[in-house]
UniProtKB/TrEMBL annotation, chain A:
Membrane topology according to the record: Multi-pass membrane protein
Membrane spanning residue stretches: 20-41, 79-103, 115-138, 158-177, 198-220, 254-276
One GO term of the biological process aspect: transmembrane transport
The keyword S-adenosyl-L-methionine is annotated on this UniProt entry: no
InterPro entries for the chain: BP-dep_ABC_trans_perm (IPR050901), MetI-like (IPR000515), MetI-like_sf (IPR035906)
Domain of life assignment: Bacteria
Protein name: Carbohydrate ABC transporter permease
Family: Belongs to the binding-protein-dependent transport system permease family.
One Gene Ontology CC term in the entry: plasma membrane
Pfam families in UniProt: BPD_transp_1 (PF00528)
Automatic annotation (TrEMBL), chain B:
Transmembrane segments: 37-65, 105-130, 142-162, 194-217, 245-263, 302-322
Protein name as catalogued: ABC transporter permease
Membrane topology: Multi-pass membrane protein
One GO cellular component term noted in the UniProt record for this chain: plasma membrane
Organism field: Streptomyces nodosus
Residue numbers spanned by region Disordered: 1-27
InterPro entries assigned to the protein according to its UniProt record, in alphabetical order: ABC_transporter_permease, MetI-like, MetI-like_sf
Family: Belongs to the binding-protein-dependent transport system permease family.
Residue span(s) of domain ABC transmembrane type-1: 105-319
Chief location: membrane
Taxonomic placement: Bacteria, Bacillati, Actinomycetota, Actinomycetes, Kitasatosporales
Statement: the UniProt record of this protein carries the keyword Endoplasmic reticulum: no
């Protein structure tokens, strides 16, 4: 597998008709993708008058004021930290659990294997709305019975989010582990490694692109979730997904601040994603797309 | 991840092998644990899936048979049974509740088919266009993945701004600059909201198709193209005869995943329209949310959810039966 990109298709030069259609299509598509990104960036640098009046492509004056004000209009820093803790912890747990599960399915034959994979995968198709209220009730009941605060806490949200990415992660890692030659970890077992040792020393390092891909996916899922974040958080545990709604008051919508805040919360994930996208394609190639 | 890579260095392994006690110990426990080990490895995933998905689903099914209004929410077990009442109400298409559900279902099906079709079409075309190397390809590829990487709320809120009636870009371009409309239109209420939702959904969703198809293209052996070129097949013929057929199994998974995600999507309509979506864009997730949390009838909301799940199960089952990949996946 080449990590640099796709295999070139044709040894001959593409015909003119193909080159022209390609040029037109890719230009239009780039425009479609870029316009909202441009609106986000340019509006975040506009004075308030520019975003409340008629739309203008170019700002009447550039200002960094929105970037200063976003932190005091709403407690953005706190939301940021909350999102970071929740998404980070959910990603870490989800990846570790998915690695163990995928290893079991990939390397062992056992009763109930098929039931397990089908069950876990089918949870992928549950609409979130289906278990929002039951989960809410369950967390409240567990809290009342044991004193463990799941509802309204970051812990509850972490627990919920890590299961969202789990099915896809397990599925992708099964494919990825299958592509790691079995001889490698069998050799490690003969050398005296335990099964876990073989997993951690041989399979995991060999499957790093797949694991990175899964981690990226898990982080993005948790960072972008809105529904559960808006029901299951309170003032102190609110995440960015909910906190961003605080920029519209009854009288004013601070669009320039909203755009600035959107940009600030997007930059870490987009940058991380673009840095790791090579792994993602490589991971998908071996995992999901067998 | 890097730490495990580092710990796999050969020096450490030889050191471990060198001490006889360390070598025998793992092998013995290994034999004992071999039988239970897979189950032990699966346990965390199983417990979590049970706790967060399956147990709530069972509770949800029980709730759908109860008359669960806000009076019983503190102690939902005490709510009176209503038998099939909630279901009867949900599928009574002559009464307001059932009629609204049926409408919402049709809107969701139309929306999902259009969105998945467009996402697939754009994603596949873009991936095929970018199969060969050309100048700026890496940059373009990174750019195309940006909508996928952006957090939903940040991306959709930007679209909300663009769709504003008075100060949005869309009306500015369509009305002020291109003079295509007589007066500025409303995009987030009324019939146009369906178009707005579709545009946002496609903008956000096609890069996933692009990503998967790009990954799929890497598996096509180069020799196939070389052989075809020798036989005199042009670029267009190569795409039709080699590229598209080779993507078949990838597409089967991709379409199913896109379908389930789009059909169940809550985040996009919720950020775009808020708690009550306009009628023309009343997707089923938001509809059920509204039935449960805004009108406070959790019993009916649960019944609707169960009906939705049954529908998805049937669709997925039929789809998996019809595709060869399904048989392969089920045999994992």
């Amino acid at each position: 597998m080449s990590s640099t990109g796709q295999a070139p298709r044709s040894p001959m030069a593409p015909p003119r008709s193909f080159l022209w259609s390609r040029r037109i299509f890719l230009t239009l598509l780039a425009g479609f993708v870029l316009v909202p990104v441009y609106v986000m960036v340019s509006s975040s640098l506009k004075p308030l008058a520019d975003v409340t009046g008629k739309f203008r492509w170019l700002p009447s004056g550039l200002t960094v004021r929105p970037y200063i004000d976003i932190w005091s209009t709403v407690p953005l820093a706190r939301y940021f930290v909350n999102s970071l803790i929740v998404a980070g912890a959910a990603t870490l747990c989800s990846v570790v659990i998915a690695v163990f599960s995928a290893y079991a399915v990939s390397r062992y034959n056992f009763r109930g294997k098929r039931v397990f994979t089908v069950t876990v995968l089918s949870t992928q198709m549950f609409p979130g709305i289906l278990f929002l209220l039951p989960l809410f009730l369950l967390y409240v009941n567990i809290g009342n019975a044991t004193g463990i605060a799941l509802f309204g806490s970051r812990g509850g949200l972490i627990l919920t989010y890590l299961t969202f990415s789990l099915p896809f992660s397990i599925w992708m890692l099964i494919g990825y582990f299958d592509s790691v030659p079995r001889d490698l970890d069998e050799a490690a077992l003969v050398d005296g490694c335990g099964p876990i040792g073989a997993l951690l020393r041989i399979v995991v390092p060999a499957a790093t692109p797949g694991i990175v891909a899964v981690a990226v996916y898990a982080f993005m899922t948790a960072w972008g979730e809105v529904l559960f974040a808006s029901v299951m958080t309170n003032d102190t545990t609110r995440t960015l997904a909910v906190g961003l709604q605080g920029y519209s008051t009854l009288n004013d919508v601070y669009w320039n601040q909203i755009m600035a805040a959107s940009l600030v919360v997007s930059v870490p994930v987009v940058a991380g994603f673009l840095l790791l996208q090579r792994y993602l394609v490589a991971g998908l190639t071996a995992g999901a797309v067998k | 991840m890097t730490s495990t890579t580092a710990s796999a260095d050969p020096g450490e392994r030889t050191a471990r092998k060198g001490s006889p006690g360390a070598a025998r110990e793992p092998r013995r426990t290994g034999r004992i644990r071999r039988i239970g080990l897979p189950y032990l490895l699966l346990l965390p995933a199983l417990v979590l899936e049970l706790l967060v998905h399956l147990v709530p689903m069972v509770i949800g099914i029980v709730m759908s048979f109860k008359e669960l209004t806000q009076f019983y929410i503190r102690d939902w077990g005490a709510a009176p049974w209503s038998g099939l009442g909630n279901y009867r109400m949900s599928v009574d298409f002559d009464a307001p509740v059932g009629e609204a559900l049926l409408h919402s279902f049709f809107v969701t099906v139309c929306f999902t088919l259009l969105s998945v079709g467009l996402c697939w079409l754009i994603g596949t075309t873009a991936a095929i266009c970018m199969q060969d190397t050309f100048r700026g390809r890496g940059l373009l590829r990174a750019l195309f993945l940006v909508p996928y990487a952006l957090p939903v709320y940040a991306a959709v809120i930007t679209w909300v701004f663009m769709f504003q009636h008075d100060n949005g870009l869309v009306n500015h371009v369509l009305h002020d600059q291109l003079h295509l409309t007589d007066k500025p239109s409303f995009w987030l209420i009324g019939d146009n909201s369906f178009i707005a939702l579709l545009v946002v959904s496609v903008w956000k969703g096609w890069p996933f198709a692009f990503l998967i198809v790009m990954a799929g293209l890497q598996n096509i052996p180069r020799e196939l193209y070389e052989a075809a070129a020798l036989d005199g097949a042009g670029m267009w013929q190569q795409i039709r005869r080699i590229t598209l057929p080779s993507l078949r199994s990838v597409n089967q998974v991709l379409v199913l995943v896109l379908f389930l995600w789009t059909f169940n999507d809550f985040n996009t309509p919720f950020v775009l329209f808020g708690k009550a979506a306009p009628e023309a864009a009343d997707l089923i997730s938001v509809h059920i949310y509204q039935a449960s949390f805004v009108t406070w009838n959790f019993g009916t909301g649960s019944a609707m959810s169960v009906l939705l799940l049954l529908f998805l199960l049937v669709v997925t089952g039929v789809y998996l039966l019809l595709t060869s990949r399904g048989r392969k996946t089920a045999d994992v």
